[in-house]
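[recover] target loaded
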């Protein structure tokens, strides 16, 4: 259920800032662009304009703007508390803007979530019903995505094989390890091959073999699928994405392709530490 977030009286807008000069680092022509900037040339499937999100008096996101074209693969980076999960929740309609707007394929996030095959979302944690089996979760999700019996069975089998979930299909979610619940939640997000996939720390709690299987599955997403993924595992997220958005203290402080952000070169870890404000 969405949480209403209202701006507090007397709060002031702040411009996006960051970097040595106090201005946002932006790479025009990358897979992400700010309001009024040139992107990849494609119409944005995700558009964020001057987004503020409040939790009580706390301003969790501050005047964030960006466009993501269809088919882009975008990493959300930043330290803990930067606003990554809040931005993901705003994209998926789990929190309401206190200012600004979010558009998903020309719709509000709530409308987008009602479209069966538009948006797949993996939130923080593993939000499963402990009294349902893994198979019951997947079958219910298939129905909600409008898949008939044969198509639903094929899709459930595909994800079960890819993530080695088949042996856990008949187990109650409440009796699974955190890693297994996380795998099942990832399968729910990917079921039906939605046009947009939004993942918050997808390999959190997974063992190395489970993380490898999920990463391999994400690398097989169709070219037209838009992927937005948050992760602290930088080499992994860099292997899945072609561009990155950096958040800190609720502000968007940098964006661009990995090579643009790296400048003369550098690993994903080096890019991160170049951008973070100590």
């Amino acid at each position: 259920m969405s949480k209403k977030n209202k701006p507090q009286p007397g709060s002031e807008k702040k411009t996006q800032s960051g970097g040595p000069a106090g201005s946002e680092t932006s790479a025009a022509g990358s897979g992400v662009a700010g309001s009024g900037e040139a992107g990849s040339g494609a119409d944005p499937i995700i558009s964020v304009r001057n987004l503020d999100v409040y939790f009580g008096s706390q301003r969790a996101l501050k005047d964030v703007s960006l466009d993501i074209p269809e088919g882009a693969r975008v990493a959300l980076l930043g330290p803990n508390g930067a606003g990554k999960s809040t931005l993901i929740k705003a994209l998926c309609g789990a929190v309401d803007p206190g200012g600004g707007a979010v558009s998903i394929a020309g719709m509000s996030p709530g409308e987008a979530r009602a479209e069966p095959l538009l948006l797949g979302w993996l939130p923080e944690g593993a939000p499963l019903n402990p009294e349902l089996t893994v198979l019951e979760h997947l079958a219910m999700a298939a129905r909600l995505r409008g898949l008939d019996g044969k198509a639903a069975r094929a899709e459930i089998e595909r994800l079960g094989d890819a993530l080695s979930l088949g042996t856990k299909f008949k187990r109650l979610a409440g009796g699974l390890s955190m890693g297994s619940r996380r795998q099942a939640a990832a399968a729910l997000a990917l079921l039906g091959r939605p046009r947009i996939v939004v993942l918050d720390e997808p390999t959190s709690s997974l063992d190395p073999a489970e993380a490898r299987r999920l990463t391999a599955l994400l690398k097989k997403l169709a070219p037209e699928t838009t992927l937005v993924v948050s992760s602290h595992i930088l080499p992994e997220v860099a292997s899945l994405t072609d561009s990155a958005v950096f958040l800190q203290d609720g502000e968007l402080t940098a964006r661009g392709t990995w090579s643009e952000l790296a400048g003369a070169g550098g690993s994903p870890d080096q890019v991160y530490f170049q951008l973070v404000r100590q």
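[recover] notes: Confidence is low (pLDDT under 50) at residues 1-23, 35-40.
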